Amino acid sequence: MLKALSAAAIVVLTAAGAFAADMPVKAPVAPNEFTWTGCFAGVRAGAAISDDKIRSSADFSSTGFIGGGQIGCDYQFASALVVGVEGRAGWSSVVSKTPGRGVDRATGIIFPTQFTVANDFLASATARLGYAFAGSWLFYVRGGAAWTREKSDIAFTPPSLGLAVDSRGTATRTGWTAGTGLDWAFAPHWSTSLEYDYYDFGANDFFLTDPVNGVKFSGNLRDRIHTVTVGLNYHF
Question: 38-55 b/e with 16+ CB inside 10 Å = b?
Fold first, then answer.
């Protein structure tokens, strides 16, 4: 009896082994592709180049640093199309200076001047349209509204006055921005990007006043900025 049971067990185990050998092997599960659907927040830093012009002078420019943060949300469609919105704000060290000449109305003497404009704040609210590829990459373009704080002054010493004049003024300008970039998701919740943006704030009249001497000055400034930045985002 014991021999018969042992033989039966051997037959069952052999049949089970043969059945298991015939079963298809499950393929290993590939890592999930990064999905851009969701919200994010991060920081950004890079270089900014101004491209300015005042009436009665040639173009002038300066290079500086820009750094700040951003927050936004994206949605990825099954077709790999990605749409989103983003808000940014940052500090800039861009200060452009250009020499010029003035004419003293009382004496007719020509004297040197220096006009300076600083863009110490830059912000934007934009839409984003992109295409996801290769599992963790996103190529995108962005565009929308932009704002900058413009600090201007002109310094000169007119011969008839005999005093140094430094007329100043601050204004917030509204314009537009457009750019393009490449985003790479290097970890489940993290991505880094390289981006170029163009900001245009148009040509605006400015009005400057010397707080000491009360001398006023007015003119027109065309204010444009180019930026190249690297960003780091955490995705929720």
Answer: eebebebebebbbbbbbe
